[in-house]
Amino acid sequence: MADSREKIASIIIPVYQAKDTLKTCVLSCLNQKFVEPDEMEIILVDDGSTDGSSDICDELQKEYGENLIVVIHSKNHGVSHARNLGIERASGRFLVFVDSDDQVKETLIDNMTKYADEGTVLVDETKKYVSPQKLSGFQYIENSILNENTHVWGKLFDRHTINYRNIRFNEKLTIGEDLIFLIDLALSQEKDHTIRLITEEDYIYNDNQDGAMGSAFKESYMDQFVCWKMAEKRILPYKKQVSEYAFVSLSCSQIMTALLVVGKVAVQGKNERDDVLADLAVSEAMDQIGHALKTRGAFAGLSFGYKIKVMLFRISPKAYLDLYYKHKKG
Fold it and tell me: 15 has which bridge partners?
């Protein structure tokens, strides 16, 4: 009979084509100091893998038991759907999201839970912004999320808050789903000081060149425009609760991500591009940059290199693509 007690933590791992890294990832999660096996669970959500990852999930469950390793098999719907399935199945006091090609240190759970009292909804391991006091939701958006802290890994989430506020990953997004999830959580807290930032580094991130932003340009990259529009739409009603600098940071991010997408288009080369999709990406980038530059201080907030890029791109998108391609290809 399954143990019905609430566990300390549920570690949710979306699994898709991860046969080469999955075991190492799971073993690192299992090796947690000061956490007993019956105090945690690892939820493996197989997102329709066809490379043998599904079998590895089942083998791990058989080896370590169903109370410790929970396996969910699903058709391929993407990482957001997989994480949402994990949230629905989780029974832990806290949620931790780990990617199947990463690892964690043995101190991850212990380091984060010791900072999580009854009034804490999020513990975030980050050095982007340091504060000895808990932050409000608005402060977290301005000082951390909009300061390049847009991922959900390396964080501890209060499961009851996530469920009570019905916060879920947007399954229509393939890029930027983490950003929106964090903003939704932060906005649910508003002025309440419930978010703790700590400087420990217990998450081992592996830069996967086959991941969402590591591969060649494709249609899903257009979500970079969508997610930052969504972010602005969510934050705008709270304009009086955050400083003007928050919107400068947001606009700078819109500019930089637009140029990131354009760069992906450029390095494909003229003969490799889908011209219709490439033209759409360039047009969207031009619109997003133009919109972002309407924010007072946005251009000044960019680094010198990005200022040059913006000017060149706005003068001649075609010349910018050609120059970028030559620069990257040597």
Answer: 46
Query: Per-residue pLDDT tens for 28-51?
Result: 999 999 999 999 999 999 999 999
Q: What is the pTM of this model?
A: 0.95
Say how far apart CA 316 and CA 260 lie, in whole Å: 16
Cα dihedral 181, 187, 189, 191 sign = positive
pLDDT above 80 (res 213): no
CB 82 within 8 A of CB 177: no
Q: Is the pLDDT of residue 88 over 90?
A: yes
Contact 124, 144 (CB under 8 A): yes
The mean pLDDT of 194-202, rounded to a whole number, is 97
SS3 annotation, the chain: CCCCCCEEEEEEEEECCCCCCHHHHHHHHHCCCCCCHHHEEEEEEEECCCCCHHHHHHHHHHHHCCCCEEEEEECCCCHHHHHHHHHHHCCEEEEEECCCCCEECCCHHHHHHCCCCCCCCEEEECCCCCCCCCEEHHHHHHHCHHHCCCCCCCEEEEHHHHHHCCCCCCCCCCCCHHHHHHHHHHHHHCCCEEEEEECCCCEECCCCCCCCCCCCCCHHHHHHHHHHHHHHHHHHHHCCCCCHHHHHHHHHHHHHHHHHHHHHHHHHCCCCCCHHHHHHHHHHHHHHHHHHCCCCCCCCCCCHHHHHHHHHHHHCHHHHHHHHHHHHHC
Record the tokens describing residue 33, joined without a space: 């100091």
Residue 208 pLDDT exceeds 90: no
Alpha-carbon gap, residue 223 to 145, rounded angstroms: 18
The 10s digit of each residue's pLDDT in 91-145 is 999 999 999 999 999 999 999 999 999 999 999 999 999 999 999 999 999 999 9
Q: How many CB atoms lie within 10 A of CB 152?
A: 22
Side chain identity, residue 143:
N
